[in-house]
Fold this sequence. Notes:
Rossmann fold; 2 domains; about 45% helix
Amino acid sequence: xxxxxxxxxxxxxxxxxxxxxxxxxxxxxxxxxxxxxxxxxxxxxxxxxxxxxxxxxxxxxxxxxxxxxxxxxxxxxxxxxxxxxxxxxxxxxxxxxxxxxxxxxxxxxxxxxxxxxxxxxxxxxxxxxxxxxxxxxxxxxxxxxxxxxxxxxxxxxxxxxxxxxxxxxxxxxxxxxxxxxxxxxxxxxxxxxxxxxxxxxxxxxxxxxxxxxxxxxxxxxxxxxxxxxxxxxxxxxxxxxxxxxxxxxxxxxxxxxxxxxxxxxxxxxxxxxxxxxxxxxxxxxxxxxxxxxxxxxxxxxxxxxxxxxxxxxxxxxxxxxxxxxxxxxxxxxxxxxxxxxx
Length: 342
């Protein structure tokens, strides 16, 4: 087991790597905890949580909505859960987002622990305190920023992770490499998805590296006023494509990354050879780099994006691999420059 403490806005988050979820009692007792998980994960691992109070939610992004939150809160009220209790979200990004949102608003905030069970959850979704729900086709439109007390990384959950979830998670890892760590991008070029899937030490080291990158960014800018915006690289177009085409999150982000690379070429002088390098890496990890989508509808959705300011939008561009910056761009200009690829 490895334990690392990170501090965000004077709140210490204890990250525990390589710990079994069976040992969660050391951090939050069964009597004091309510586990939120999804139906598929529960069916695979039910024996791990015998004797715990468990709220199961339906699996899938389509259930990341306010009615799911209402269902959970009604159950908490029925159980007379109070501020001394722990909400523990065990699952992928949908579960940890909802668990964080519930913990932040129930009785104006109760204790929170997270156990991410996917690559995407371990490297991105469970880190940084962002949580919430979708509204119609707009992702994460309602939510809060609320930091957990602990995050437990039980790598055994990856043994039952579907292939598509591995692929989707590596989009976020490649995103981190693009914006902050060219050496990690080179490492990924020298290996394959299958190698990481079959080598416990390799994947645990890679996850810890990504946790460090994200915490370092969030610790400096919790509320997304500056550098935290860099984490949206690939997500501005990606979120719109994800909802329109019902794609896995990582697949949509991968397409968004390439769109951002092309825009970086036009605006920042980013090298086309580096766009190809990133596209080749995404393809190597079985991620798409293009899609047939209604261009007009993509940019209609961008009108509702949280990063929009008037007729402009905050868009993350690359200066070079490992060096990103956010620019406030006119939405019409973005639309015109991306007509060739969307």
